[in-house]
Amino acid sequence: FNAALRDAAVQELSGQGFRVTVSDLYAMNFRASATQDDIIAGKEEVQLLCQRGVAFRSCEVGPVVGEMLDSLPHLPFPLYWFSVPAVLKGWFDRVLTQGFAFSLSKIYSKGVFKDKKVLLSFTTGAPESMFQPDGIDGDINVTLWPLQHGILNFCGFQVLAPQIFWDPAHCPAAKRAQMLDGWRARLGGLLTERPLTFAPRELFDLSFQAGFRLRPEVKEEQKAQPFGLSTGHHLGKPLPPDDQTRAPSAGGNKK
To answer: Which segments carry the region annotation Disordered (predicted)?
Structure first.
């Protein structure tokens, strides 16, 4: 079904006049694990990420990175163990390296890819009811936080709301066809969508002395709010509904 979703995206976007590049990690025999082969010989930095950041252009994925991140990266995948398949995790590990995708001064709202949008679309093996706050699998917003905030927002991407296809393996054919139709319809207006909101780095004291924590005045302001600031910055309060799955309306903040 993920292949069908990919093909629908290629067909729809090509029909709109866009140039679509498909990077099939399996067809590329992409190696998921980061190894010594990713590092230029002779470098003596201690931290692997720093080494690989300096040595990035020697990595076998170097030539295709520009194509994959040229405009609107669309990352489709089946949800495996509440996360991405190993090959996509390996792509994150080996491509989004320090010195290329981020630096100490270029993260989050001032990140390297702050002018680019990205979209996750994925299938689940369980129905939507199981991923509710009272469902046995827990809130899907919590599941998505490490991916959308910890990887994509960290690198500065404007993250569009995810496209989730709930449990297609156990749906009738008519329901899967309806999912595909809804996906095509969304692709028609994708570039005009508002991204998800994340706490901007300006709300934090970005110093080692303060531990990169929320500024005291921000925490004071948040006391009057019914929900936490975000899925990750909930401050001991209820998580904001749909924080990782729905963009704010054009009229203002979604909370």
So the answer is: 219-255
The CA distance from 89 to 227, in Å, is: 31
Kindly state the percentage of the chain with pLDDT values over 70: 83
- pTM higher than 0.90: no
Extended beta strands in 55-143, E state: 74-78, 117-123
Domain 2-192 CATH superfamily:
Flavodoxin domain (3.40.50.360)
Angle between helices 173-187 and 2-15 (to 10 degrees): 40
Domain residue ranges of the chain, discontinuous segments joined by +: 2-192
Among the residues of the chain, which ranges form H helices? 2-15, 48-54, 62-68, 86-95, 140-147, 173-187, 216-222
pLDDT band at residue 67 under the 50/70/90 scheme: low
